[in-house]
Amino acid sequence: MTTMAQRTNKPLQDPGGTGSSTLTELRLALTRNLRTSGIYMALVALVVLFAVFTGGASLSPGNITNIVLQYSYILVLAIGMVIVIIAGHIDLSVGSVVALTSAISAITVIKYGMPWWAGVLAALAAGLAIGAWHGFWVAYVGIPAFIVTLAGMLLFRGMTLWVLDNISLSPFPSEYGVIASGFVNGLLGGYGYDTFTLLVFAIGVIGFAVNEYRTRKTRRSYRQPVPPLWLFAAKIAAVGVVVMAFAWQLATARGLPVVLIMLAILIMAYSLIMQHTVFGRQIYAIGGNLSAAALSGVKVKAVNFWIFVNMGLLSAVAGIVFSSRTNGAQPGAGNMFELDAIAAAFIGGAAVTGGVGKVVGAVAGALIMAVMSNGMQLMGIDQSVQSVVKGLVLLLAVAFDIWNKRRAGAQ
Is Cell inner membrane one of the keywords UniProt gives this record (predicted)? Predict the structure, then answer.
């Protein structure tokens, strides 16, 4: 008599079988988490599409580097925004916070002549204070985040105009510009490409492979379904090829951008927090079922407060990166950044109702937005058309989320 454990593990023992079973395994692997796999397939498809439409210009080393530098602050905002959305909230103020924190940094460094790092610290402190302000009204007063952050969007935009006296302020010292425009290269000698960049990405691929293997081993020990070995190996190989191709483009341009190192640290840190800490699980619990989370002992008010403190901090980081990139502070900085960050989170798999989403998915969503914007710019498409396309992509992403939930419910 076949036990449940044997029935569960039977597909795992099958090394591939016939061509029909192989296709079945592949289909099941892709549809098991359709939302996640769809994000990455869409990203790859967009990269290939624009490479064809631009005659390969979108994949040139210089353009790849430019995408990293130009859209890095949106990636930072997307990390914070997906956490807010997972908890069932929204933050409409991040663009204004970017503007205000960059203005505070500029005033500190340019107007008052303090060291560049003093401007960074001042911006971070302002971001934390703004996050605490939002967190207080949302968590302890009970005003919906939509209203609180809408008020914050107006409040902090006005404060930006007041701080800058309605004029732009520039330039920053050269050290400040390294944050968003600096590169690490030449550490291992020159061969026509930067060896250090390739080494860093190769270590990253090895780390990814080891982590995936450990995850697979753990799932098997708990008799949970895992993809067949050939598909697992194919996934590792595909990721390795894509990552090293990206690394090669950077290595043949100007090397490893400093801001990319910062982004990698943020992505790994927040992925760890959301997936492997009590605080991360509490955020998912609050977004999934607020009443159940409260009854299970989750300190909902405290968690919500720190979610917005974190969003304020990451908005300040984005403000620092943006001001470093533009070498100054402008009253209109950060305009519409909140919509880009929200779109990135939803495109990356976050659910409108909360409780669902991943940091890596939000980053992938932000990269989709970046690749679309960059590709359409290279093609000379009008800005109005670009806005229409972005709006349609966001609408389709949310529609896909709703369809996927209905599909899962029907099963």
Answer: yes
